[in-house]
Amino acid sequence: MTFKKIRRGHIDWRNFLCSTPARDYVFQKDAYEDQIDRAAENIRNADCVIIGAGAGASTAAGIQYGGKRFTDNFGEFIEKYGVHYMTDMYAAGFYPYPSEEAKWGYWSKHALMNRFDPPALPLYTKLYDIVKSKEYFVLTTNVDHQFYKAGFDEKRIFATQGDYGKIQCQKACHPKTYDAKDLFRKMDKARRDCLIPSELVPKCPVCGGNMAMNLRCDNYFVEDEAWHEAADRYAGFLEQHKDKKVVLLELGVGFNTPEYIPTLCTI
Fold this sequence. Notes:
- This protein has helices spanning 32-45, 55-61, 67-73, 75-81, 89-93, 100-116, 122-131, 146-149, 181-190, 225-240; strands spanning 2-3, 26-27, 48-53, 135-140, 157-159, 162-169, 177-179, 211-215, 246-251.
- By secondary structure, it is an alpha/beta fold.
- Helix 8 (146-149) links the parallel strand 4 (135-140) and strand 5 (157-159).
- The longest helix has 17 residues, at 100-116.
């Protein structure tokens, strides 16, 4: 695989953030089947495997944020807030909801749809079957918990961007996150006209302010104790295997948050 030489000013990087197909900036000399065979051989011969996974992996697995899955399950939101804003679940997550009742009305359903309700999907279980007999580590920007559900050891996963199943203080007044599964179930059951009852709106137990999803979307993202422990385990894994034969398996990684998965290259 060879890459175009890209010089500063020669390319409009906005194109890379708008689903530009890989074929437009990557030349592949070898047939796809030959690349797959070579990858499989490299994994078989490796001492360990590091998996770097982005949103494309879950999309390929079947967790579609748009299309029929979105329109079938979020019709009331599309009708209430407008089809121009509610184009898919990703866009809906950035909608400026007018109240906390509206915000959690959406996010509780989103979390259930993408984090709690889906089972371990075949793509992830097959991936686990490939690496389970080897030393491995997973570095992922995904927040849907699919690696955990598929059987990957939770001590070998570093999910850098958060978790759909957790909430935090919106202003990150303290470095702690909270499991929200039961709360989201209650919200989903009680939601009417896209709104949850005011008594279900979560408040920060420390400062009394609003809560937010534990997702890296601004400077207030909480990296809690578990996050730092996972980061340390990943760093330790890299140090332990720095002189061994390592395969870096990158899956579904785009240019939305490109600074995280490429840290694989630090080894």
